[in-house]
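To: structure subgroup
Subject: Chain for Friday's discussion

All,

I'm putting the inputs and outputs inline so they're searchable in the archive.
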Amino acid sequence: MKKRVKFLMKITGVGILSMLVWGYSGGIVWADDEQVLEKKGTTLNSSAASSQNDESRAKALSKQFDVPESRVTDMRNQKMGWGEITISLAMAQHMSATSKTPLTTEQALTKIQQLRSEKMGWGKIAKEQGFKLGPVVSAVDRGEQTLKTADRGAVERSESKTSSDRPDKSDKMDRADQAERPQHPDRPEHPARPERPGR
């Protein structure tokens, strides 16, 4: 009987220890994901933006997260940074996908904005709503790339518009060169070469 009790204590001890380690490491992962989101949010919030960039970014994020462009523009008009907008959209998309009850991304976004207005952190929101932050971090990574692509597109459109408004420099130079080139007198024709023997 004593052997059996000792054996059960060992098993229980190992079980408790592994549960503690698993729970502790799970907490670390959760905290790491929240820190990653915070850093990404800060980076995206501090990225330079213009009205032209804002329009391109709103269009790109609405397409990626399947929400109306006007919804993204409204968030921007509420003085939300691009980092917070991207994280909110990523969380809303994931929350609607993992919800046990039917929930649209739009409804999830409204819920997240309400919780954020109560000064709730990303990790606490995810925990309260019953989902992990890992997939949200991945979606924010994709969102970051989407914003960079939108910025490049806005710059290219701006440059092409600017260059089409101005005459092309090479055209000006060609016209100037043509006007300054002296006319060459006709060159004398070369006499025909005599044929070589054997042909």
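Points worth raising on Friday:
Residues 2-158 form one domain.
Residues 13-29 have pLDDT under 50 and may be disordered.

D.
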